[in-house]
Amino acid sequence: MSFLRLLDRRLARLEDLLIMAMMATIAILLGLGVVLRYVFNNPLTWAEEFVITLFVWSVMLGVPSALRSRMHIRIDVVIMRLSNRGRRFMGCIACLAGLVIMCAAVYAGYTHTAGVWTSKTPMLGFSMGWIFLAMPVGFALTLFHGIMILMEEGPERVFQNATETVIDTAPV
Fold first, then answer.
1. CB atoms near residue 68 (< 10 Å)
2. What is the SS3 assignment for 4?
3. Disulfide: which of 9, 73, 91, 94 matches 155 by Cβ 3.0-4.6 Å?
């Protein structure tokens, strides 16, 4: 278990570093693109394609990052009205559904990536598979981090420690 915890922490750190590097690169390329296009009348024709690729990867790496920090949107109006036993049961159902959905997303992403691997991007000429590979990788990392959270905390904690109350449903 300690190896898995270490792997979980290292992957989390790598994901966060990659997201930061990609977002910085996106900002630099977009800024440079604007200056080159409107000041020097010489646009970076390849930058938009590269920025889109980086953005897709940063979003798909952001999914497991958000899961680890419990930042996913959760609508729990009905859940909070249940008993503790009901919440634990719904937590188990939610975790099981999440794991099934992540497995399906990894599989769908893999099959789609394999299907587009021979297609090339118009400007840079690299495989479209590199763009679509973000989906199975992101969801596989989400699946791994989700399993780690379940092993450490258990499914009964799914509906505890909400990060933010957006709408208070208490009677006035």
1. 20
2. helix
3. 91
- The model's pTM: 0.82
- Higher pLDDT residue, 60 or 170? 60
- Tell me the pLDDT tens digit for each residue of 1-59: 699 999 999 999 999 999 999 999 999 999 999 999 999 999 888 999 999 999 999 99
Is residue 85 packed enough to be buried (19+ CB in 10 Å), middle (13-18) or exposed (0-12)?
exposed
pLDDT at 150: 85
Residues near 148 by Cβ (< 8 Å), separated by ≥ 6?
A: 4, 5, 8
Around Cβ 84, how many Cβ atoms within 10 Å? Answer: 10
- 145 class by beta-carbon count within 10 Å (0-12 exposed, 13-18 middle, 19+ buried): buried
Q: In terms of Cα–Cα distance, which of 58, 132, 73, 145 is closest to 102?
A: 145
